[in-house]
Amino acid sequence: MDPALLAELLEDEFLRRPPPKSTGRERYGLAEAEAWFSHSQQAGRSADDLLATLVAFGAEAVASACQDFLPAAVQRLIVGGGGARNPAVMAALAQRMPGVAVDPMDAHGVPAAAAEAMAFALLGRNTLLGIPNQLPRTTGAAGPRVLGEIVPGASGRV
Asked: What structural domains does the chain harbor?
């Protein structure tokens, strides 16, 4: 693990911004990954060193966000997506959050690999029913919004 790169990554102002917030490939995408890889190579670090640093970054970011932004101490962290099946990620989270039960979603009856599909199914359902699925308390939006557009097929049916 590269302590200097980890410290640099943890300086990202996004991490200090209070919720609601969201990010993805637009902030931590291919361009960032290539820059981190280049930085590691120039520092004489291996790809494994970079991966270990990124795992530590993710665990630290999650642990700090829980500590800084949640009103009560976290007792259980339920992990979804690919990280739930990555032993290094799960171990790093457990190490960084002692006393917190760190479980994959699967352990609670929700397939970790299906989390995104389930979320999009719920968004689609809410759009069909006209139920707001973007809420100010969650996203910081100006008001509740129904997201998406229903486009009938050639038969005129949805």
From this structure: 3-110 (3.30.420.40), 111-158 (no CATH)
Q: Is the pTM of this model over 0.85?
A: no
| Rounded CA separation 55/97 (Å) | 14
**Amino acid identity for residue 95 in this structure:** Q
The backbone torsions φ and ψ at residue 125, rounded to the nearest 5 degrees and listed phi first, read: -60, -50
Q: Using CA atoms, how far apart are residues 64 and 6, in angstroms rounded to an integer?
A: 14
How many CA atoms lie within 13 Å of 49's alpha carbon, on the beta-carbon side? Answer: 17
List per-residue pLDDT tens for the chain, 158 residues long. 999 999 999 999 999 999 888 888 888 899 999 999 998 999 999 999 999 999 999 999 999 999 999 989 999 999 988 889 999 999 999 999 999 999 999 999 989 888 888 888 999 999 999 999 887 877 778 888 898 888 888 887 76
